[in-house]
Design a protein that fits this description.
Length: 99
Amino acid sequence: MNGLNMRVLLAMGACLFVVLMAGPALAQTTDRIDINTASVEELMGLKGIGKTYAERIVSHRENVGPFTAVDDLIQVKGIGAKTIEPIRDRIMVSPVRTP
């Protein structure tokens, strides 16, 4: 194997290593539920969020506006820190777009 082929092979191996190592991190970010776009059914998939809380989250979002931070869920009746903490790593807030 000549030098050029060896460098190409090493570069391909390095790329594969990076993809394999980043895989779990990428999966974690894509598995999050965006509380600004999630449906009632999607929200109900979160631990501690039943139909009533999910409906309140969607209603709050529609009537008050989008959430700007995960901790804004505290503004929803019945939801407090004890509800948010166990799901914090499963939820996210999409950036709020301004017209």
